[in-house]
Prior knowledge:
Blueprint: E1 2-5, H1 9-19, H2 25-43, E2 49-55, E3 60-66, E4 72-77, H3 84-88, E5 95-96, E6 98-103, E7 110-116, E8 125-129, E9 132-133, H4 137-148, E10 153-161, H5 163-172, E11 180-187, E12 190-191, E13 197-198, H6 204-209
Parallel strand pairs: 1-11, 4-5, 4-6, 4-8, 8-10, 9-10, 10-11
Antiparallel strand pairs: 2-3, 6-7, 12-13
Helix pairs in contact: 1-2
Domain Phosphoribosyltransferase: 5-210
Binding site for 5-phospho-alpha-D-ribose 1-diphosphate: 78, 103, 130-138, 203
Cofactor: Mg(2+)
Amino acid sequence: MRTLVVDHPLVAHKLTVLRDETTESPTFRNLADELVTLLAYEATRDVRVEDCAIVTPVAPTTGTKLAAPRPLVVPILRAGLGMLDGMMRLLPTAEVGFLGMVRNEETLEASTYAERLPDDLSGRQCYVLDPMLATGGTLAAAIRFLTNRGADHITAVCLLAAPEGCARLEDELAGLDVPVTVVVAAMDERLNEKGYIVPGLGDAGDRLYGVV
Length: 212
Ligand code: URA
């Protein structure tokens, strides 16, 4: 597993406003959207492309286009939904599948409550959207779900990660023969006793959708 922390002053600025507890949902949603687009630029560095012949107004030439099959973008419900538009801005022809996962707040384990994905993901590049890589349980389960269906290249896009979650993900994916990259805006200090990222930004779903 490769972890890429995107080091960019705009990412740092937007993340700081997101973290601020006084930032309200409408601003939070806009900033998350902008931040994901910046992360998406880095996350798509390995997107598969192929040569194509085109003719410009001046001359024929060879260009580059996204290869088939189309990449699949998978937001993990609920909070991953707040990252979808920001990702699709850069990959507008991607297919979108949905995975509903919920974390049991006592055991901190993830379970799947909904899925809308193609049965066969052979040869597909998947971009998983999950804002908070906290314990790593949800992301590990989502990645296993996708690779069990044949996905052969996974990039997770997260806003924040905790070192404990990255370590667990690395452990759980150790035997997996599929490249996994995690692209994140910042690696925070730790998890607290409730499984929240510290300093973090609180509950990403609640802050996106205005639940207090
Ligand atoms: N999920 C969140 O929304 N926030 C955290 O800090 C951890 C998990």
